[in-house]
Structures are given as C-alpha cells and as structure tokens.
Design brief:
Elements (H helix, E strand, L loop, with lengths): L1 E5 L3 H12 L3 E5 L3 H8 L10 H10 L3 E4 L2 H7 L2 E4 L15 H10 L7 E5 L7 H12 L5 E5 L9 H6 L4 E4 L3 H10 L1 H5 L4 E4 L1 H32 L3 H9 L20 H14 L5 H24 L8 E5 L14 H11 L3 E5 L4 H4 L8 E2 L3 H5 L4 E4 L4 H4 L3 H7 L4 E4 L6 H6 L3 E3 L4
C-alpha cells in the first residue's frame, strides 16, 4: 500500500516517517524546495528526539521519500494524508483552512483509482465535508472517500505517541474506507491499541474536545496554585491529592506560566469560534483562553515583584525559551510574552535554550542577548528566571547560581528547585503555588 503525505511539517514528517516504519511506501510532499533538499540531506527542519534516525533508516530502506511533485505521489497513492497547517486566522480567531482546501483542490485531478483522502491536520467540524465537496467538484469521476484521522502527538514524544498511542480515532463512513484505515493501522491492532471508528464530525470534534480539556486542566491547576499562595498550601500536594483520584488522574496537573505550543492556543480558540458559529456555549474554554493569556503577563509581573518592584537596568537571565522541553517550538511560548514585557519594563535580558535559539531569534527584541550556555546566561545576572524545565536546568544547583550571578533572585516558573535548599543558600527564591 502506498501513502502520500502532503505537508512535511511537524505532523506530516513524523506521521510519514512512522508509517514507513510500519512497512508502507510513503512519499512526503512539500512546496518548499529548500525544506525538501534539507530533509534529503538528512537535516530535519524541526527538533524531535529520534526523528533523524527514524527518517534515515527508512530512506535507506527505500520506503520513505521526499519530493515536490504532488501529482505523481497522489496518482500512485492508496491513501493521501493532508497534513498542512491550520493556524489561527487573522482577524476572527477561526482556524485558517485555506491550506487544507488548497490541497484538496490541487490533488483532486490526480486521484487515480479508489483513494482514501485523510485529513490529518487539526480541523474544525465540517472540514471533511467541505474537502469532499471540493474533490467531487474538481474531479467528478474520482473514486474516493474522505476520512478524519486527527493526530495526538506530543512534541518531544511524538514517535512513541504514534507507535504506541492511547488511541487512534478514525472518522470513516464507508466499509471501504474503514478497511483501508484498518490496514494502515494494523501494527497497532496487533498490540491491542483502542481504535475508535466514528463519523466525520465526531472525529473532528474529538481532537478539539481533547486539547481543550487538557488546557482546562492546566489552567485549573494554575488557579489552584494562586490560591495555594494565598492560603499557605502546597500546590504539589494538592495536585497529588487530586491526581490519586482515578477519575481525575495526575496528568497535566503541573503548575507553570501557562500553556503554549502549536496546538492548545489555536485549538482552544478555534473550538470557541466553532461553538459560537453553531450557537453553542463553551464558556469554560472561553474563560481558559482569557486566563492563559493573562497568566503569561502575570508571570512577568511576578519577576518584577521579585526584583523589588523594578527591573530597569537590571541584568536578568532567562533559562528556557521553547514552550516545553524536548522541542524547539516557540509558537505561543510563555517566554515570548514574559521577555517582551520585561524588556518593555527596562530589563537587560540574557537568554539561553538548549534547542530553540534559532527559532527564537526573529521573535525577540533586538536588545535581547543570546548566550551559549546556562552558565554564560547567568554570568553577572542580578536575577534568573527559569521558564522551560530542560534537564540541563534541573541539574543546576545553588552553588552554580551563586558562582556566576551577582544577585540572589531566582524566579522558578516550573518549580524545578526546592524552596528550602535555595533559601538556605541565600537566594530570594520565588516559585509557583508553594
């Protein structure tokens, strides 16, 4: 069985490589010649642990290919996966589906024989029906079915998430389409992965409902952390006490500066807009969107307060730029809002991230200084702010802070360090909910 994956970004690249690992012949298509050339040289356009080796192995085996020619790949494919971006549309907050619809229009004339067209991109309810309409209009003779197969890949753990997922969701409405999808995911059937077949609309909504629920959990524990600070409780013990209840679970109950990344920010907004369009109320998600944005600004104020109420002229080290560890993704990273606010307040910022420096450079003010290491970043700093909990930062101890910094202020937005240890070492230490 041959697969064409249109879009070689994060979702397309990981999905294509993993399907080739399953033994299928996969061609990943992209319009960007530079990106395709880079991948064919063995250079990944994103940082994802394990991805370079996975791609190299399957390219060497002749199962994985990267090309610009959409027509040839689609014509040869039994299944075509649409894996292009669906960013927030400027002006109204809806998901921008222009890339998805453009792909549907472009590929339709080249469909040959029965083909399953799969939306892998995160798309609002109704997108699959529109893709179906576009393909049928452009190529009335095409034999095809449209399927929704949302991805649930965590950046930093995407390969293991694809290979051993919690579940696979498939919105398919014909026996022929379901049979093709069963064949594609047969390796997961063999390890008894739950595979849920639904209609198109249900599958599309499951993705948004899942991401929004996790965003709610993150914002909820952040609000509990604020309350803990007011009443003298410890948010980690609160989270543990909650998480031991199997109805709640312990995942996503980690306080911090707010969620970011490629999914939660745009997907929560898109869900709110979808609900508004259909006259439904998702006020909980709407409140989470507003709270999360305010949360990031509150973290900047927390730093200013820890520095004595003013950061004018103060040299501050920012440890971590990516929205989470094990990725270089800067999309909606809390670090962006925090850094811009501190620069506006007059701070002299030095920043360092193990993987996200190149992605961050065009997004940060020119005055920000990029450093080569955590030690370099901390050198001479009056204060330090830990934004992303990379293991490299977890390994830092009070002596290392003291040996390089001139000041003694540490604001830990990920609760990596122990308050008692930092305070005994003479630091004015601030963390979240403790």
């Amino acid at each position: 069985m041959k697969i064409a994956v249109i879009g070689s970004g994060y979702v397309g690249l990981v999905s294509g490589a993993c399907f080739s690992e399953f033994g299928f012949d996969v061609t990943c298509i992209d319009k960007d010649p530079a990106k395709i050339q880079k991948i064919n040289r063995g250079e990944m356009p994103i940082y994802e642990p394990g991805l370079p080796d996975l791609v190299a192995r399957n390219v060497a085996a002749g199962r994985l290919h990267f090309a610009l020619d959409l027509a040839a790949a689609v014509a040869a494919a039994d299944a075509v996966f649409i894996a292009v971006g669906t960013p927030t549309r400027r002006g109204d907050g809806h998901a921008d589906l222009s890339f998805v619809y453009a792909v549907a229009e472009e590929m339709a004339p080249h469909l040959s024989g029965y083909t399953v067209v799969v939306t892998k991109s995160t798309v609002p309810v109704g997108t699959g029906r529109e893709v179906e309409s576009i393909v049928a209009r452009v190529n009335p003779d095409a034999q095809f079915d449209v399927v929704s197969n949302p991805e649930f890949l965590r950046e930093g753990a995407a390969i293991s998430d694809f290979m051993r997922p919690d579940r696979v969701v498939v919105g398919a409405e014909t026996d022929a389409a379901r049979e093709v999808m069963r064949a594609l995911y047969r390796p997961l059937f063999l390890i008894e992965t739950p595979i849920l077949f639904t209609n198109l609309e249900t599958s599309e909504l499951i993705k948004y409902a899942s991401n929004a629920f996790l965003a709610v959990k993150i914002s909820y524990i952040n609000q509990m952390a604020d309350l803990c600070e007011m009443v003298g409780a410890d948010v980690h013990d609160v989270a543990k006490g909650m998480g031991l209840d199997k109805r709640i679970g312990n995942k996503f109950l980690h306080p911090g500066p707010g969620y970011g990344g490629s999914c939660f920010p745009k997907d929560t907004i898109a869900l709110v807009k979808t609900a508004e369009k259909h006259g439904s109320d998702v006020s909980i998600v709407d409140a989470v969107v507003a709270f999360n944005q305010a949360r990031k600004m509150a973290m900047a104020k927390r730093v200013i307060t820890a520095m004595g109420g003013s950061v004018t002229g103060a040299q501050i080290a920012i440890l971590g730029l990516a929205f989470k560890p094990e990725t270089d993704d800067m999309r909606d990273s809390p670090a962006l809002d925090i850094i811009h606010a501190l620069v506006k307040a007059g701070a002299d910022l030095r920043v360092y991230d193990p993987k996200a420096m190149d992605e961050a450079r065009p997004l940060l003010p020119p005055a920000v200084r990029f450093c080569e290491s955590a030690t370099d970043c901390l050198a001479g700093a009056a204060g330090a702010v830990l934004v992303t909990e990379w293991n490299e930062f977890r390994a830092l101890n009070p002596a290392q802070f003291a040996a390089t910094m001139t000041g003694r202020v540490v604001v830990d937005l990920r609760n990596v360090y122990e308050p008692e240890v930092m305070q005994r070492a003479g630091f004015k230490y601030s963390s979240i909910g403790r």
